[in-house]
Fold this sequence. Notes:
Elements: H1 26-43, H2 47-53, H3 58-66, H4 84-97, H5 103-116, H6 119-130, E1 136-139, E2 155-159, E3 162-173, E4 180-186, E5 197-203, E6 210-215, E7 226-237, H7 249-285, E8 287-288, E9 291-292, H8 297-325, H9 331-356, H10 366-374, H11 384-392
Parallel strand pairs: 1-4
Antiparallel strand pairs: 2-3, 3-7, 4-5, 6-7, 8-9
Helix pairs in contact: 1-4, 4-7, 5-6, 5-7, 7-8, 7-9, 7-10, 8-9, 9-10, 9-11
Residues 105, 138-141, 146-147, 171-173, 218, 221, 226, 376, 379-380, 383, 385-386, 389 line the site of flavin-adenine dinucleotide (FAD).
Amino acid sequence: MREPGTRKPSFTKMTTLTFQSPWMNDELGIFRKTVRQFIQEKFTPHYDRWCQQHRPDPEAWKEAGATGILLSGLPEQYGGGGTFANEAVVIEELAQAGIQFGSIVHSIVAHYIHAYGNEEQKRKWLPRMALGEMVGAIAMTEPSAGSDLQGMKTTARREGDHYVINGSKTFITNGWHASLICLAVKTDPMASGVKGMSLLMVEGKDLPGYRVGRSLEKVGMHSVDTCELFFDGVRVPASNLLGPAEGRGFYQMMDQLPYERVSIGVAAVASAERAVAITTKYVKERMAFGKPLIDFQNTRFKLAECKTETHIARVFLDDCIQQLIAGKLNLVTAAMAKYWLTDCQCRVIDECVQLHGGNGYMTEFPIGRMWADSRVQRIYGGTNEIMKELIGSSL
Length: 395
Ligand SMILES: Cc1cc2nc3c(=O)[nH]c(=O)nc-3n(C[C@H](O)[C@H](O)[C@H](O)COP(=O)(O)OP(=O)(O)OC[C@H]3O[C@@H](n4cnc5c(N)ncnc54)[C@H](O)[C@@H]3O)c2cc1C
């Protein structure tokens, strides 16, 4: 019999495994199983090699496309058939498997085309992207313009039926694989502020004057090709402009940000959940001073904090996902999600590294890799400081 005061409370035991997001349903459950099996069979066995070569194999994109994993949230006629919930499932499963793959960026490009492209552009590019025959990249950042996109120098000058592009971009995800780049350019360099900015689709890898630099050496995310791109008099058809007129680029980007930021949030929460799960297992197995680490109160308290924060993150994220699907998510809430969920991810993973001791710093332990992979989440997609500026400006 238990001592008074040590009786186990009789409330339902809730774990992240039993928690069901309100946007999940049976159909998505079947989709999740397919995605999980695909990742286990087609991605995981090759992952170490991808990290060494700094990019996934080209076949990985086509296999993912054939399995229906790419652009699953687009309408059926463009190769999708689901909603953002399908995309969230894919992002979660990749995070749960510890796989970094540029499919979020690929989807962001597709959503730009879907939102601003004309019917001809949509039919030309989206089905091929859904099949993984074309890989998308989004190129905004330049060596001297990241947070402050107004400092952008890449230009696209109209010459008859073409634009002629000059400039360079850096830190571009999927840069090596990309055959369709959504490129932020200045079509009117004389216009003040963001008014002269446009989005131009650059199709093909072999265009004269176009060059991809080497894959950049990163702290983490080794399996993703992150490159510099160079444009020296590159000619693209004028019909590749996104939207009916020049000068809309900045506003188009602003409009799509909630989608991009929630996608980053999905990866953040799934990754924090994975960190808590693998660390819980680890501290039950690892012994110190004659007992498992979990028997130390500090271990239980730290994991209790991590689990609580992760659960709060999950509930907030699920609300954002539902609002996004309903077309109601505003820019400020999306900025809150991006900032808070990625900060939470990094806090939780850092604590989990600590609970692993020296093993936590080794890349052969998943938590070590997760720590290196997660850090950039607070930087790309708009830094978390810029998110706070945005939230602050709404006060
Ligand atoms: C792995 C990786 C992948 C990426 N993928 C892509 C991609 O696919 N496409 C793409 O276009 N870009 C990509 N980026 C670039 C990324 O979006 C930028 O790095 C990011 O926007 C920050 O810009 P920056 O690096 O120029 O930093 P800076 O703008 O120089 O910022 C430096 C610091 O100053 C702070 N700061 C700047 N302005 C303010 C302000 N107003 N108030 C307070 N603080 C401020 C920032 O928050 C940051 O802490 C990627 C970056 C990385 C590392």
